[in-house]
Specification:
By secondary structure, the chain is an alpha/beta fold. The chain has 10 helices and 7 strands. The structure holds uridine-5'-diphosphate and magnesium ion.
Length: about 300
């Protein structure tokens, strides 16, 4: 299978990246020149408070391949990516950061995997040259997600990836508001490939992700793709009931066999223990209902077709 890319869309969310935009554009066009394919470069200005808008607006005038989508305020990277993908027309779509932490040099490799038949190509970070806290929190988060979430694609995968038009059309049908795109793409299935890379440091500016935004993204990922928090009620409830019941057996045995007299409050404590256990179980059951309501309200497709034969 050796297909040609007719139009390559590159979607870049921009939040206070005035120093990086020109640099990224130069690198991208230099690369694309050697790729022999049409290209559109979509910058999504996510409510930057610096001169990013002016810089892109300047570029747009001189090059029709560069497009600008200006959001009314800061909606966050995931929303910005969604907006950019909604407007992209390419048959292959690449999303990447503006700060050159997603090295453009990897693009030919992503496209190569696509040519070989992968409908999605994830770029996976092998190593991070970033602050200690960022590396540690990312490590913990991704290893927990690997163990406890429904996502089977593992490792430190961000939003640097290539998707085929077909995948994007399916993704665009998923209009849920809390978006964890890397998870949603993985959820869709399709043949995928992974390319590993070393994530370099940010050259200019500073990360648009503070701890609050990072925690929110992590929460979106966990809530949407893991049932562990939900099952916590079941686990705690079961522990309470089982241990309460063992205490009960113990003091029953003790008072019958050894004629020890237990004061009323001790019996009541055990009763309370078990009652709390039942409460936790009840919470878990309610949570299961809520999860179903949540699933329904997301309105995701019931299935996704990758291809058909004779149909
Ligand atoms: N970004 C955005 N909106 C935000 C925060 C970030 O569009 O609210 C963009 C940012 O311009 C960059 C990408 O998302 O292109 C990744 O952000 P950043 O480099 O700050 O994240 P980090 O690499 O620190 O995880
Ligand atoms: Mg970055």
């Amino acid at each position: 299978m050796d297909q040609k890319v007719d139009l390559l869309s590159i979607v870049v969310p921009v939040y206070n990246e005035e120093q990086n935009i020109l640099f990224l554009r130069d690198k991208l066009f230099e690369l694309i020149g050697s790729l022999d394919c049409g290209c559109e470069l979509i910058f999504v200005n996510d409510g930057s408070s610096d001169n990013s808008f002016e810089v892109i607006a300047g570029l747009v005038k001189s090059d029709r391949r560069i497009k600008l989508l200006n959001l009314s305020r800061n909606f966050g990277q995931q929303a910005a990516l969604t907006a950019g993908m909604d407007y992209s027309k390419g048959d292959v779509i690449i999303t990447m950061d503006c700060d050159l932490q997603d090295p453009p040099e990897l693009i030919p490799e992503l496209i190569k995997k696509w040519r070989e038949g992968a409908k999605v190509v994830f770029a996976r970070r092998r190593l991070r040259k970033e602050g200690f806290m960022k590396v540690v929190t990312a490590r913990i988060f991704y290893s927990l997600m690997k163990r406890y979430s429904d996502l089977k694609i593992t490792g430190d995968i961000g939003d640097f990836r290539l998707v085929d038009r077909k995948v994007l059309d399916s993704l665009n049908n998923m209009r849920e508001k809390s978006r964890y795109l890397r998870g949603m793409v993985a959820w869709l299935g399709f043949n995928y490939a992974i390319v590993d890379f070393d994530r370099p440091e940010r050259i200019h500016g500073k990360s648009g992700y503070d701890y609050f935004k990072m925690a929110r993204l992590a929460m979106d990922g966990v809530v949407s793709f893991s049932s562990l928090p939900l099952r916590m009620g079941l686990v705690i409830g079961t522990i309470c009931i089982v241990s309460g019941f063992s205490f009960l057996v113990y003091i029953c045995g003790d008072s019958i066999l050894n004629h020890v007299v237990y004061p009323l409050y001790k019996w009541l404590v055990i009763a309370l223990f078990m009652l709390i256990g039942f409460l936790f179980i009840l919470i878990w059951i309610v949570a299961e209902y809520i999860r179903r309501i949540y699933d329904e309200s997301k309105g995701r497709p019931i299935y996704v077709v990758q291809g058909t034969e004779n149909l």
